[in-house]
Design a protein that fits this description.
The complex is a heterodimer of chains A (about 375) and B (about 130). Chain A is α/β, with parallel strands linked by helices and about 375 residues long. In chain A, about 65% of the residues lie in helices and about 10% in strands. The longest helix of chain A has about 80 residues. In chain B, strands 1, 2, 3, 4, 5, 6, 7 and 8 form an 8-stranded mixed β-sheet that branches. In chain B, helix 1 runs antiparallel to helix 2. The chains are: A alpha/beta (about 375), B alpha+beta (about 130). Chain B: It is a peripheral membrane protein.
Chain lengths: ~375, ~130
């Protein structure tokens, strides 16, 4: 406000030609800048926020760069938001499959309840070696997302070491890969890279690896570490026992085995399982008549053998999808914080800039007026 | 009576419409399914699925899973399914060759398990192609 008044007043002054004022300004500029800066930094208001010590030109370039950063972070936020929607779509697309699978598994399990089943994927062996599948993201700039899951993995590794057990890591995602590459003392079985959207193929690659590790008895337990998507603002890194699967189609806890993940993690898992059982309850009423007449073409064990890899795959895919969703959500919130921060920084910088500019103009006018007075 | 076939993969619904007849490769050999089939549950091997629509036969490569037949409703749950017409012949043939080479090279129990799986998948894809031509 006052600034514009000053300029108006200056331009309305008939005694001054534009060229003289311009030449004055340009000649004075380099000398006046430091004095102005010091005066502006001494003012109580600007120092109360953050003291910004720099010249007008620097201020302008800082404002520009903050503006650019803000644009970038805003764009990243929007992209993440769009991707979240796509990730959600992927989950929705996979729903018919997983629902039918759970339904069938439930049906078959009902009929197999009495039999003693011995499928390779459900075999519970004494645990000597554990494989950890660590799902991280491919990119940074998503807050503590990658750090959290890696920290969780480290904690779990320390825990296993404490129990005197061997372990190996299967790392999924670029960030995890680079972390484990830098730490050669952690045995890594395989590095896998995630893609933009997890597909069944990717899940299959992990499942194949895990399957062969487990069936060839190289490892006796497989745990999946991923970030569980709770909501857009909340996600938890969790540990999920993948193998051995329990024939009930639930993530098993090995009874009487001391190497289970810490209790709280299992409780978190039970909430997940709680969700699953709710689904199953709904299904039960629908298909009660169906299962009564169903015949098995093969041995029930063989059918279970065919179903469990499917279940394994869908579990891995689900974990990958949740991990991606949490990554995107984390990025979204990180980027929206960054944008907010940029907006505030820009505001503060432009206040300082305007104040300095105004002070400079005032100073120039004072000098001109004094000069004119001296001539008279 | 019409027969409805539904092929589901974790990613998407590959097929969900009416068919006349299907031939499914199960773990205990191929079975043909016509309308009013007895309700059965069967494991599906890595292999091909042939579908008859009127007079036309279609093939699909299935990557192992499970099928449930009943009430003129066939539900096939598989890890992956590809229609024969969507498979690139050259690429499929190459994958098969690579898989064969890998199996020959494989050492140790684990590698053999992996190589065998890959080979069977590659073979199913090539078979699906050959059925068409």
């Amino acid at each position: 406000m006052s600034c514009s008044n000053l300029t108006m007043w200056m331009s309305s002054k008939p005694s001054l030609s534009d060229t003289s004022s311009l030449s004055f300004c340009s000649s004075l500029n380099p000398f006046q800048l430091p004095t102005h800066t010091s005066s502006s930094s001494n003012t109580p208001r600007s120092s109360s926020v953050t003291p910004i010590h720099c010249g007008l030109r620097e201020l302008r370039s800082r404002i520009d760069s903050v503006k650019n950063t803000q644009k970038i972070t805003e764009a990243m936020k929007l992209v993440a938001a769009a991707k979240v929607r796509r990730a959600q779509e992927a989950v929705v697309n996979g729903r018919p499959f997983s629902e039918t699978l759970v339904e069938v598994l439930y049906n078959i399990n009902e009929q197999l309840q009495t039999e003693d089943i011995d499928a390779p994927l459900t075999k519970i062996r004494p645990v000597k070696k554990v494989a950890l599948v660590v799902c991280t993201g491919d990119r940074g700039l998503c807050g503590g997302f990658n750090n959290n899951i890696i920290k969780k993995a480290e904690a779990r590794i320390a825990e296993l070491k404490g129990l005197g057990l061997d372990y190996t890591v299967i790392s999924v995602g670029k960030k995890g890969n680079s972390y484990f590459v830098r730490r050669p003392y952690i045995p890594v079985d395989r590095f896998l890279e995630g893609t933009t959207l997890p597909t069944a193929k990717e899940a299959q690659a992990i499942a194949d690896d895990v399957f062969s590790l487990f069936v060839s008895e190289e490892v006796d337990k497989v745990e999946l570490l991923y970030t569980k998507f709770v909501s857009l603002v909340k996600s938890d890194p969790v540990i999920h026992t993948l193998l051995p699967l329990s024939p009930k189609g639930e993530i098993c806890d090995i009874n009487g085995n001391c190497v289970d993940a810490a209790e709280d993690e299992f409780f978190r898992l039970t909430t997940r399982e709680g969700k699953l059982t709710v689904e199953r309850d709904v299904v039960r009423t629908q298909t009660a008549d169906f299962s009564a007449i169903l015949q098995f073409e093969q041995d029930p064990v063989q059918i279970l053998d065919a179903l469990l890899p499917l279940y394994l795959n869908s579990q891995i895919l689900k974990a990958l999808q949740e991990s991606l969703a949490s990554e995107l959500a984390a990025r979204m919130s990180a980027m929206s914080n960054a944008t907010d921060n940029a907006v505030e920084l820009k505001k503060n910088l432009s206040i300082v800039y305007n104040r300095q500019r105004q002070a400079k103009i005032t100073g120039e006018i004072l000098e001109i007026v004094a000069g004119a007075d001296a001539l008279v | 009576m019409t027969l409805n076939l539904c092929v589901l993969t974790p990613n998407r619904i590959v097929w969900d419409s009416e068919v006349k007849e299907i031939i499914l490769s199960t773990n205990s050999g191929q079975i043909g399914v016509l309308p009013n089939h007895a309700p059965i549950a069967t494991a599906v091997d890595i292999g091909i699925l042939r579908i008859r629509l009127n007079d036309q036969w279609l093939t699909m490569a299935l990557m192992g899973g499970f099928a449930r037949i009943g009430n003129n409703e066939i539900t096939v749950l598989v890890n992956d399914a590809e229609k024969g017409s969507d498979i690139d012949p050259q690429e499929a043939q190459q994958t098969l060759e690579i898989a064969e080479a890998n199996l020959r090279k494989a050492e140790g129990r684990r590698q053999i398990i992996e190589a065998n799986l890959a080979l069977r998948r590659a073979r199913a894809r090539v078979e699906a192609l050959n059925e068409i031509s």
